[in-house]
Amino acid sequence: MTTALRQTSDAAAWTGPAPVASIEQYLGRNVHLLPQTNQLRALHTVVRDREASRRDFVFHAGRIIRLLTEAALDLLPFEPYDVRTPVGSTYRGLRFADGLLAVPIVRAGESMESELRAVIPGIRIGKILIQRDKTTKRPHLYYQALPDDIADRHVLLLDPMLATGGTAVAAIELLLELGVPEENIVFVNFITVPEGITAVCERFPDVRIVTSAIEERLNENAYMVPGIGDFGDRYFGTDR
């Protein structure tokens, strides 16, 4: 386990919204957007409602996170695994390959752990703590707890918000420094914007992103529009 305090190299201070670049080149290749069904839209309607209770927010967000988890797991490697059925036949099946690791970015990313554990109870989980300066928006790495063999693992990086991209870039840079290949990283994300997608995909073309919604843009305060508010505060009940 390692503790660190440093400013990441990503780093430009937020200077306000820029013209939104096209992300068509990334969709379906780098970015895997959940099918925009009526059910998903109904779930998003609840979690985006500023009057939603915390109980409703957590419940409906959890349902979306489960969909994201299932989609992300489908991008990970499988290996052949045969089983005998109750009638004595052989089913030529599959199972997850060894070496899966989830890495939530504290604190908001921890909201995604329970749904992942419900699907893969024994999955190993590391931690990264990165926080943005409220004035400059620069990300700082404060803490990491990751296994020594992380370079040999496939990593699910968990963070519900991808806005300017600073935190995600910092986290991915850390994983790369520790030897994780880009193609072994799947970033599981609840909600994002074109600015965040561009920041990550231009820098890390082999990292894949799974998300449930792509917002219109960032406003002058680097908030997503129409947005969802501060996901971590709303999920853990520390919003005002």
Automatic annotation (TrEMBL):
InterPro entries the UniProt entry points to: PRTase-like, PRTase_dom
Annotated EC: 2.4.2.9
Protein's UniProt keywords contain Glycosyltransferase: yes
Keywords, comma-separated and alphabetical: Glycosyltransferase, Transferase
Classification via Gene3D superfamilies: 3.40.50.2020
Entry's Gene Ontology molecular function annotations: uracil phosphoribosyltransferase activity
Residues covered by the Phosphoribosyltransferase domain: 35-238
Organism: Streptomyces actuosus
Keyword Transferase: yes
One of the Pfam families matching this protein, by short name: UPRTase
CDD domains: PRTases_typeI
Protein name: Uracil phosphoribosyltransferase
EC category: transferase
Membrane-spanning parts: none
